[in-house]
Amino acid sequence: MKLSVIGSGHVGLVTGVCFAEKGHEMLCVDHDTEKLARLKKGESPFYEPGMNELLQKHLATGRLKFSGRTEDAVEFGQAIFICVGTPSTPRGKADMTYIEKAAQTIAENLKEYRLVIEKSTVPIQTGERLKRTIARYVKGDAQFDVASNPEFLREGTAIEDTLKPDRVVIGVDSAKAEALLREIYAGFNCPIVVTSVGSAELIKHASNSFLALKITFANWLARLCEASGADVEQVVHGMGLDHRIGRHFLNAGIGYGGSCFPKDVDALAHIAEELRVDASLIRLISDTNKSQLQRFYEKMESELWVLNDKTIAIWGLAFKPNTDDLREAPALRLIDMLKKAGAKLRVHDPVAMPNTRKVHPDLYYARDAIDACAGADALAVCTEWPQYRELDLAKVKASLRVPIVFDGRNCLDRKRAAELNIRLLGIGKGPIGAQ
Ligand SMILES: NC(=O)c1ccc[n+]([C@@H]2O[C@H](COP(=O)([O-])OP(=O)(O)OC[C@H]3O[C@@H](n4cnc5c(N)ncnc54)[C@H](O)[C@@H]3O)[C@@H](O)[C@H]2O)c1
């Protein structure tokens, strides 16, 4: 089928290459000319494992094309996926500016039936607003449907997640929309969950908020463990084996970040309050998450006494491994706090250093993780890249000026650290090593 995508960012581009892989003909549009130039050359504007290969493959098969004109999307595809950003406003509400603009462009260029599909994460009732907007701006009498098809991909495993999803959710209010979406997903081997448009919208916000809640619950438990002498990893292991609970996302650390959880949790609280539903449970997720990083900073301050003029190594800048996405990355907030306190920072990340350099040109960008530690008074781990876990801690100790490590992701080998007499301070467990 001929399909269009408006917005060729993380979600739009993954949608484009994955549907091309499934045999559809794709046109992806974006109004960012720099991004577009790279895409047309077969170069992904962001780091995502497997992306460059699929992009180049389908530029060559001719099943994937790019355009800078959003109007082209309306003409090309029988179905149009809206994949534009839905950032937070300063008050935490989802900003619908890009969605509305896309809807207006669709309306103004609508000549024959189109299925307009929200793939961006949007608050419940957006579908109704989209319908109303398109109906207001449409010029002729062309028909359209609006459907919701939320995206559940995770950056870092986005292609695998999209080609082999746990489920596909389609929110529709017409048989024609359902039939088209079923045809689009015919090549996918997973349950298709058909709901109303509003339920599909809510499934996405609710899923992200629930996952954020699991992380936050583990972080709260970590506080209790630190206060009582228990070990949070033992606690979540014991909990997670219960299949009603599950082990995924029950990880204590320095808090969640990224382009989705922080804004989606806030947006869910906001829409609930707009609908006069008490949102204190959801609000607490966000507040507890923010204070988790503050506690980590205070732990560093308490251990190191004076931060001014201390040299601190930071491992991991991206909000999670396998991405160069820095949106709401805890490491960036920590860098701001440490810089303010007068610390000198030596940072490392396997892929996110070029993006970090744009916001913090004044840091020392290390050649590798060991170089980051050279002469440092302490090391803080902010992202659990697998290569950090695998590093020989003897080399880390030899490189540091003082062997103090703050493991913000509980990812380093505590037994090995104890053998080497490294002072290791994790999350939700007592420190090990000499004072
Ligand atoms: N990134 C993720 O992991 C992820 C996962 C699931 C859902 N989502 C949701 O998907 C949506 C998109 O997220 P993203 O991370 O891909 O954002 P992004 O910022 O990477 O990409 C959005 C793109 O849309 C383009 N754009 C905006 N308006 C346009 C228009 N009118 N015409 C053409 N292009 C336009 C922008 O230039 C940008 O390239 C958001 O709602 C997000 O919450 C993201």
Describe this structure in words.
The chain has 435 residues and is of the alpha/beta class. It folds into three domains: 2-195, NAD(P)-binding Rossmann-like Domain (Rossmann fold, 3-Layer(aba) Sandwich), CATH 3.40.50; 204-285, N-(1-d-carboxylethyl)-l-norvaline Dehydrogenase, domain 2, CATH 1.10.1040.10; 289-425, Rossmann fold, CATH 3.40.50. It has helices at 10-21, 33-40, 51-61, 70-76, 97-108, 126-137, 158-163, 175-184, 197-228, 232-240, 261-274, 280-304, 330-340, 353-359, 369-373, 386-390, 393-399, 414-419, and strands spanning 2-6, 25-29, 64-67, 79-82, 114-118, 144-148, 168-171, 192-195, 311-315, 344-348, 364-365, 378-381, 404-407, 423-425. The model has no long low-confidence stretch (mean pLDDT 97). Nicotinamide-adenine-dinucleotide binds at residues 6-12, 29-32, 35, 70, 83-86, 98, 101-102, 120-121, 151, 153, 155, 259-260.
Using only CA atoms, what is the Rg? 23 Å
Number of helices: 18
Mean model confidence by pLDDT: 97
| Shape field | globular
How many domains in all? 3
Largest pleated sheet: 6 strands, parallel
Helix/strand structural class: alpha/beta
Which percent band covers the strand fraction? 5-15%
User: Strand order within the widest sheet?
Assistant: 3-2-1-4-5-6
CATH class of the largest domain: Alpha Beta
CATH architecture of the largest domain: 3-Layer(aba) Sandwich
Helical percentage: 40-55%
